């Protein structure tokens, strides 16, 4: 199948055709103008010569003589040669020629119009005379009293005018050729540039590509954001608008995504927060670095499930450790019974049971929200596994469901996890304690988590809730506290960090309770 012409080739052909037509029209106009100018110049020349001859006293005197031809013929031929005209005819008012380049025609009537000249005017006409087609002028010759005593006709053949015009043809042809070559070179350069920009595609191919592109853009299940070199959004598809919460008539992106585009760096599967969603972003630049394409995938539910899975995994490991410890204590109790020391066996068994029951009673009594109570019990077991003492502040008090469980669990769970990581990384000899306070007040829920970790500097505290910030290196970190900040800002609440290097940290979050 023969491939159709590309847009660049079609444009080149169209430009060459248009330029050729324009040059042809312009050249034709120039030739016509030059021919008119040559004709007007010839008319002006013959008129001037005719009037000069007619006003010559020698001509008037010769016309009164008995043989005007003897005097006028040499005079007329000399004037004709000097003025480069084709004929100068001096005649009587009755048209009888006294002079003529062809001597055999002398004495014969003049062929042409003379009526207007006999009336005292000037005749200007193109006439097929005895020498061929010519432009001629006929003027009257007057004597001293003003009477018309003769006529003077001067002419130039049209073939002479055409020869003079043909002498200008090389210059016109050179200009025309130069214009065509220059226009063709410009069209060729423009077509090459257009070919590079369109990759040699034809109109039908570009139409199909646009249709496919538009269909893919609106059907793909990933968000696409195309930005220019200056960071301005050039294109955003429907899925990206949905994920980012951007209206169709509002090109402004959330601050997190706008900052990400402004960083101008390549990324692969990097988690970001945008509104209520946790997205995974990948970004790559075009081959000429003139723009970039940002792809977004919604991992909100996956992140939540991952967090819940991590909590369950931590709780499972804690329960496994507790089961291991319980088995050791059970063996100890049985050994004490076998050794005949039942009192010590009973005391050892009841002490562990009392401590576990005390923690459960404290948590369940203070926190009536079942999911939050279960979370705190699981974190207590996880802390014990890590060798951390986690205590629930006695003033904690939460009624059932003051806020959506998912948001409350996200805030408390991430704050506790952050505190456990902080005290775990503390140096030897440092007490490992975490204190948790969750209290429902009149119009807000107060969450306060303190730890005895290494603490934070003022700069670190200011950046702790920013996306991607973490005291530990590695991908995927810096998300927990960002989620806390996101939920807090969504509720219109407040968050703060009270910390100093070596003095631990206290993270406080206040979440207003919706009416």
From TrEMBL:
Q: Which SUPFAM superfamilies match?
A: ATPase domain of HSP90 chaperone/DNA topoisomerase II/histidine kinase (SSF55874), PYP-like sensor domain (PAS domain) (SSF55785), Sensory domain-like (SSF103190)
Sequence ranges assigned to domain PAS in this UniProt record:
209-250
Task: Give the membrane topology.
Answer: Multi-pass membrane protein
Q: Which UniProt keywords apply?
A: ATP-binding, Cell membrane, Kinase, Membrane, Nucleotide-binding, Phosphoprotein, Transferase, Transmembrane, Transmembrane helix, Two-component regulatory system
**Protein name, UniProt field:** histidine kinase
Secretion signal: which residues? none
Source domain of life:
Bacteria
Tell me one GO biological process term.
Answer: phosphorelay signal transduction system
In which compartments does the protein localize?
Cell membrane
UniProt organism field: Actinoplanes cyaneus
Taxonomic classification: Bacteria, Bacillati, Actinomycetota, Actinomycetes, Micromonosporales
MF terms from GO for this chain are: ATP binding; protein histidine kinase activity
Query: Which EC number applies?
Result: 2.7.13.3
Q: Name one GO cellular component term.
A: plasma membrane
Q: Which reaction does it catalyse?
A: ATP + protein L-histidine = ADP + protein N-phospho-L-histidine
* Residue ranges of every copy of the Histidine kinase domain listed in the record: 284-515
């Amino acid at each position: 199948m023969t491939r159709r012409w590309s847009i660049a080739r079609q444009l080149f052909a169209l430009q060459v055709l248009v330029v050729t037509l324009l040059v042809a029209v312009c050249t034709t106009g120039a030739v016509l103008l030059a021919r008119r100018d040559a004709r007007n110049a010839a008319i002006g020349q013959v008129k001037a010569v005719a009037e000069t001859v007619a006003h010559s006293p020698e001509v008037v005197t010769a016309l009164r003589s008995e043989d005007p031809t003897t005097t006028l013929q040499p005079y007329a031929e000399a004037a004709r040669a000097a003025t480069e005209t084709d004929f100068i005819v001096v005649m009587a008012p009755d048209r009888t020629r006294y002079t003529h380049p062809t001597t055999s025609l002398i004495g014969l009537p003049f062929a042409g119009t003379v009526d207007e000249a006999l009336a005292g005017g000037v005749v200007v006409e193109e006439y097929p005379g005895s020498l061929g087609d010519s432009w001629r002028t006929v003027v009257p010759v007057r004597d001293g009293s003003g009477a018309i005593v003769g006529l003077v006709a001067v002419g130039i053949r049209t073939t002479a005018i055409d020869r003079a015009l043909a002498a200008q043809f090389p210059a016109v042809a050179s200009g025309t050729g130069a214009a065509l070559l220059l226009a063709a070179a410009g069209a060729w350069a423009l077509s090459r540039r257009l070919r590079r920009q369109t990759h040699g595609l034809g109109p039908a191919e570009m139409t199909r590509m646009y249709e496919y592109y538009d269909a893919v853009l609106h059907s793909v299940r990933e968000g696409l954001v195309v930005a220019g070199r200056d960071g301005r959004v050039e294109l955003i598809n429907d899925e990206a608008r949905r994920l980012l919460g951007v209206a169709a008539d509002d090109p402004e992106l959330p601050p997190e995504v706008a900052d990400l585009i402004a960083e101008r760096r390549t990324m692969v599967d990097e988690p970001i927060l945008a509104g209520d969603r946790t997205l995974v972003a990948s970004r790559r630049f075009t081959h000429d670095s003139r723009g970039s394409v940002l792809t977004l995938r919604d991992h909100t539910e996956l992140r939540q499930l991952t967090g819940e899975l991590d909590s369950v995994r931590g709780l499972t490991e804690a329960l496994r450790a507790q089961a291991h410890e319980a088995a050791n204590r059970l063996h100890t109790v049985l050994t004490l019974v076998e050794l005949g020391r039942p009192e010590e066996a009973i005391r050892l068994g009841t002490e562990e049971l009392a401590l576990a029951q005390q923690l459960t009673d404290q948590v369940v009594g203070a926190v009536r929200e079942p999911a939050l109570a279960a979370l705190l019990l699981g974190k207590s077991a996880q802390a014990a596994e890590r060798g951390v003492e986690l205590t629930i502040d006695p003033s904690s008090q939460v009624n059932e469901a003051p806020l959506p469980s998912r948001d409350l669990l996200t805030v408390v769970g991430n704050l506790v996890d952050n505190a456990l990581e902080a005290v775990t990384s503390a140096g030897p000899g440092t007490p490992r304690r975490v204190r948790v306070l969750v209290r429902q007040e009149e119009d807000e829920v107060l969450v306060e988590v303190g730890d005895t970790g290494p603490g934070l500097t003022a700069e670190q505290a200011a950046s702790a809730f920013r996306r991607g910030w973490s005291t530990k290196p590695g991908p995927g970190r810096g998300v927990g506290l960002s989620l806390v900040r996101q939920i807090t800002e969504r509720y219109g609440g407040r968050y703060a960090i009270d910390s100093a290097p070596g003095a631990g940290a206290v993270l406080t979050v206040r979440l207003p309770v919706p009416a």
